[in-house]
Records
---
Amino acid sequence: MSRALMPNLLTPQDLEPNWEWRERLPAWGHTSVDFERRVDHDRLRRYRLSRTRQSLQNSNAGSLLLFDVNNIRYVTATKIGEWERDKMCRFCLLTGDDSPYVWDFGSAAVHHKRHSDWLEPDHCLAGVVGMRGTIPPEFGLMQKYAKMIAQLIKDAGMADMPVGVDYAETAMFHALKAEGINVVDGQQIMLAAREIKNWDEIQLLTQAAAMVDGVYHMIYEELKPGVRENDIVAMSNKLLYEMGSDDVEAINAISGERCNPHPHNFTDRLIRPGDQAFFDILQSYQGYRTCYYRTFNVGRATPSQNDAYKKAREWIDASIAMIKPGVSTDKVAEVWPTAQSLGFDNEDQAFGLQFGHGLGLALHERPIISRAVSLDHPMEIQTGMVFALETYCPATDGYSAARIEEEVVVTETGCEVISLFPAEELPIANRY
């Protein structure tokens, strides 16, 4: 019998999320132990592959060709370092009922054969296509692998069905077309698969949020005049990697007059007394990501700054109260203020300020909640979804602003917040 997770070894139970709702979702330690059942990685791998197969069966495609590293990890449970993210140097194929193939960067394929025993050894292949065009198309690698992919699809009996591709270089699309492959949107198939998290994914997301809880305590202690925004970013990166983060994607650090309008970055600006400052920690633990804003004031706060914070808190509390299975995303978006009420011309300008988005192996998964899209294109909220809700309120002083974000897990009866650093009232760091 193959050591791989072949289709006949995938049972209906593999599709079950295995939720174990309790009073508080656990944030386990990083290690595996014999006296507690923590993350079950075998179950996680089976669940993700079975969700992908189910989503593929629900589509008009017969195969999936994936270049997005998040999708590759979801299907094959392989990862070769965060440097891979923008290289377009890896790809995988899921064809009919066959086991997934993964083409990897040089010797990484040999490593998978030795250590990824849930994969078929002869499905772990070395291969590379364009690497964002640095290997010119005329070298022929695109054609070589397009031909190989087409043959595998034919061997699996899927040649007459479309192939879902998430994204690829333009030359790769031309090479696939030349082989007679009918390409359809595979990213939608994969996003549908990834919508509902199982118990193991939820535990990993909770652990990632717990790490950020600790970072915010550090920021609360370190936020004082003379410290620069980039100093906070450096200290946060250090602490997160010490905690076990595998990727600190970004840390927004916004203070003082930079708060309004929101620039979504950090600088070397010095923190000053009375500043309102907000931060966003985007990092991952075993691939599972956080998006988690908190706002602080330094030393003291004005009535205008307090009012902005209270409004941002009211809006996020109103949206959290709406989160339960069966509610559509337009109903959540409706409790948020209009773009015009915040001084913007339209909802496109305000996009991302009153916002909700799924969390998982990617920062932005389904559902997306925004007045710009959800009012006309609502989605149903389902048990097992995990997403972040974020609100923003500019202060009447013309430059301060408050930003709050909570991560929520949709339970069978409502939702549970897993971002736990206190944010019910405006935190004043190093109060005068």
---
Amino acid sequence: MPLIALSNVTKAYPPRSKGAPPTVAVDDVSLEIEEGDVHAIIGYSGAGKSTLVRLINALERPTGGRVTVAGRDLVGLDERALRQVRRGIGMIFQQFNLFESKTVWGNVEFPLKVAGIPRAEHQKRISDLLHFVGLVDQAHAYVDQLSGGQKQRVGIARALATSPQILLADEATSALDPETTRDVLGLLRRVNTEFGVTVVVITHEMDVVRSIANRVSVMEGGRIVEQGEVFDVFSAPRTEAARRFVAGVVPTVPDADTLATLRSRHPGRIVSFSFADGGTDQSAIFLELNRRGVGFELIHGGIEDIRGRTFGTITLALTGDDASIDEALDRLTAVATIVKAA
């Protein structure tokens, strides 16, 4: 049984004005997240991903469908039972949501007090968490004395205070610079591997997905339009929404404008080849072209690596007589994927 399961879930809000239709934020979504996974939910603003998170932690109730967390159907639970479920779900936010009037220690201690955990256990728990996130020296500092990255580390420590099974990260790195983002994502990966916490990352950044997630769900218009292993979605996106996200971070086949620019700069026939883990490598293509006496220049693209698995595209400008190029390409169709030839 998955740790988190949504089955045909819909969330609609009342009309904003008389005679207007309801606003559907989540539309017939089914999703399963396994225990111990790092699952990213990606979408542009308004896609419904933040509403989806609020359904998982029971801050919103679905209009229709079923939400199950750790084997419990949230739809039928009263508020007291929902509070127990939420205790097993930690959450970190884009804007940190820390108490400015409390120290780092006080922020991490707050959920322990709310959960009724005996005070005798606070000292060790908070100390362990501050060591984990690297903030022992700032234990008695106030929030306004911290950098953005330090604030998010406090947020992570606070979210872990009650030893949750699940950590929800809602755009948790959007307000951070690239170097700090890498540090925070590395910390979230450690939360998953060292504590066994299931992490659900909400983001609009495909780089975040590539850095941390095992699986990804792509949302658009309140629906999940594509989901699967991160490698599969990156290397062979099936929907236009997924292709738009992937195109921003992965070298792809040049579009019409880029192709026109490349053609103006490079003589010869322009051909793009795609690669996926376990398929033909570049050396096989280069060897075949050399064997046929065809010159080549790499003019676009690149190869990506996701946890030891490679994929990508390269675009070459081929020079030589037409017959030799045709013969080489005919031969290469048996061992490589030719995406575009122009």
---
Amino acid sequence: MNNMPEMKIGIVAVSRDCFPESLSVTRRQNLVKAYTQKYDASEIYECPVCIVESEIHMMQALEDIKRAGCNALCVYLGNFGPEISETMLAKYFDGPKMFVAAAEETSENGGLIQGRGDAYCGMLNASYNLKLRNVNAYIPDYPVGTAEECADMIHEFVPIAKAVYALQNLKIISFGPRPTNFLACNAPIKQLFNLGVEIEENSELDLFESFNNHANDERIPSVVEDMAKELGNGNKKPEILNKLAQYELTLLDWIEAHRGSRKYVAVAGKCWPAFQTQFGCVPCYVNSRLTQMGIPVSCEVDIYGALSEFIGTVISNDTVTLLDINNSVPADIYNNDIAGKFEYTQKDTFMGFHCGNTASSKLSFCEMKNQMIMARSLPEEVTNGTLEGDIIPGDITFFRLQSTADGELRAYIAHGEVLPVPTRSFGAIGIFAIPEMGRFYRHWLIEKNFPHHGAVAFGHFGKALFDLFKYIGVEEIGFNQPAGMLYKTENPFS
């Protein structure tokens, strides 16, 4: 993965001047020791300049963590803490931040008389002051803990901080407009700017010109060789690899030429209706390869799909995919392969599908084929370029961040799994099972007007995603509610 940040969290301990400063010093040292014993020490930096008790100390600490290259901040209440200067530190630090507090320990010098820090109380005042200053900070579910517990909290913050920082430094490059009769993935882009994301919208004619300029690129043979190696026995359309390599180089060169001031990039690409006839292929396999490189490429100019994929890539530190919430599982497949073997009803299951954009590393088997749906109305030779196969079984998180038509951020997250059941179908596809999916589908996905595209991360990452969405200001976050927990629109008499 070369398209996401490495995090360095500056740990700054604070102290209220009428409490023993030594408590914050010792507790900070213990926290850093606990973290380095359990996790990667390069993820944190211990600010040694001072314990923050005043605005002067705050400025000294801020300068120190900036010099150290910190791109995230942890304010650690070793005792009650100075509510003004500690929240000013969070306000002036340009990056994701969190607050944690020290639990009392009677074994410390002074016990619960001279050694009591009252950080449990101080966290309340910190939260009030953060609100006064309009500062958004991550506060764990229970933010008071021992050195070891606070180390775990900081470690849980790493992927959230990583995603927040990455969004603030992201550019989404799109090639459009969207296909006609395809309003589903259309959404206002104002929320991208609110998140700190830049957007570069291009015509597919610009892309086509660049593609033609790459026709005799001397790098094409080496890319073709790499593709053939990846595909192995699944290389059923070797005649199309030259065009696909040409297109891959076009995208990669475009990204580097248009990155501008931004550190990270995602792409929302065009794939129909004129793409096939003009480019002479479909882009699905190339989309999968860039996504596997850590540069997510969404289909059908789905800008918020690309945003969701990028978030999933950063949070999971792994390849993701973007799929249609596509079709129901037939009764005979359910009865023969799922019922009695897995604890899911038929309504808990569905098939997630896209034409062939899922990376080979996330497929149980793969073959380079033509796009069957497009080939129904076009010559087959211009529809080659999909990567087909059943998606690997295992845990998944299905999710999406979306702007509504009236410009509000909304999201959903659901844990589930891909079942080890043959799909008997085409494209990049899997049989998904999500508990209470039927109700979730009707009372959140449909009710809240989500499009059919959903991002898939391979593993369970709901906690980090939920905390991230809260951090960036998403007020409505849906999830697959368990039986007995009614959605607002669900009929209690059904």
